[in-house]
Every structure is written in C-alpha cells, then in structure tokens.
Amino acid sequence: MRSFHEVLLVDDDPSICEVITEVLDILGVHVTVMPSGKAGIAALNAGLRPALILLDMMMPETDGIWFCREMAKYPKILDIPVVILSACDKLESVARGLPIAGILRKPIGIDDLLSTVQPYLRAAS
C-alpha cells in the first residue's frame, strides 16, 4: 500500500537532497533519499511505496531514463508518479515518451517544489 506521506528522492547531490528533505519535512512528509537509480529501484522492489518519486535526470551510475525504463519492468510500482529534476536545457525533448508526471527545473524554487508535491499527498486522517 502506498504511503501518502512519503516521497522517494533519487538524487546524487547531497545538498539538493538536504534542502528538499528539510522543506518537505515542514509539511510532515517523510523523504527517503537514494543516491542512485539502482538504489531507488531496489528500495521500491523491497516494498517502499511513496506517494511520489522525485528523480534526478543526470546521475553518474544510472540516469533518469534508465530508472523510468527499469520501473516499467515491475507492474507493482508503475502507479507511482515520477517527477524529473534536472538542470538540462533540453529536458522536454529528453523526457519525451517517458512515463512522468512532471518536471522540476534545477535550481528548484521552494514554491515550485511545494506546488508540485502537494497534489500527491493526502491529508492525515
């Protein structure tokens, strides 16, 4: 069952992870950080079910395209929305055809982050 108070952040930049984690913590959102696409897929296959995945497009070991293609191999995790994070100038063309819910450009503004994440979160019961 998906946790609607959790976000999986797949990014290799510790400073970006720290800022995103601090901002979302204010909303009461638990952020699980994975430093690579392989670690993110492993966490999902081990049972992690976040409300949303924030995915860095450019990482040294694997990239966001690999991650999205790998997700497609596992029907149990296909319903988790993915938002791409990137500073890539041609991101729209790179991401075309990927099953993503949105794009956040780096550097990420706090208002943009919050407005992107909030629709995927459910209020506490």
Write up what this structure looks like.
The mean pLDDT is 90. Strand 3 (50-56), helix 3 and strand 4 (82-86) form a beta-alpha-beta unit. The relative contact order is 0.21. The radius of gyration is 13 Å and the shape is globular. Helix 2 (37-45) packs parallel to helix 3. It contains five helices and five strands, in the order E-H-E-H-E-H-E-H-E-H. The protein has helices at residues 14-26, 37-45, 64-71, 91-95, 110-117; strands at 3-10, 30-34, 50-56, 82-86, 102-105. The chain is α/β, with parallel strands linked by helices and 125 residues long. It has a single domain (3-119), classed as Response regulator (Rossmann fold, 3-Layer(aba) Sandwich), CATH 3.40.50.
**What is the helix fraction of residues, given as a range?**
25-40%
How large is the share of residues in beta strands?
Answer: 15-25%
Tell me the number of structural domains: 1
The pLDDT mean sits at: 90
Radius of gyration: 13 Å
Question: Can you say what the CATH homologous superfamily is?
Answer: Response regulator
Q: What is the CATH domain class?
A: Alpha Beta
Strand count: 5
**Describe the biggest sheet?**
5 strands, parallel
- The strand line-up of the biggest sheet is 2-1-3-4-5
Order of helices and strands: EHEHEHEHEH
| Category from helices, strands and their pairing | alpha/beta
Determine the N-to-C terminus distance: 16 Å
Number of helices: 5
> Can you name the CATH architecture?
3-Layer(aba) Sandwich
> What is the 3D form?
globular
Contiguous low-pLDDT stretches (5 residues minimum) are none
CATH topology (fold) name: Rossmann fold
